Amino acid sequence: xxxxxxxxxxxxxxxxVTLSNESSVRDELINRVEPANAxxxxxxxxxxxxxxxxxxxxxxxxxxxxxxxxxxxxxxxGPSRPCxxxxxxxxxxxxxxx
Length: 98
Known about the structure:
Number of helices: 3
Distance between the termini: 26 Å
Number of strands: 0
Helix content: over 70%
Strand content: under 5%
Order of helices and strands: HHH
Shape: rod-shaped
Radius of gyration: 25 Å
């Protein structure tokens, strides 16, 4: 009777540890990785807009073609790491022991 009880308690302990570890990984993903990803996508779009404006102006020599360039300068003029979560150093990798 004691062996099944020990196995059940062991399985419950492993489940609790796994869930707590999963929670910390989810928090890091939501609070750190996703804001950095969104900032990178926004910066990439701004750079493409700038490139489009420059190419249009080079081809036509018309100042109105610089519209995408000036629109793209505003998002890319800010700091290269705009989100506060991105400023903190990356956490050290944890080794998983089985």
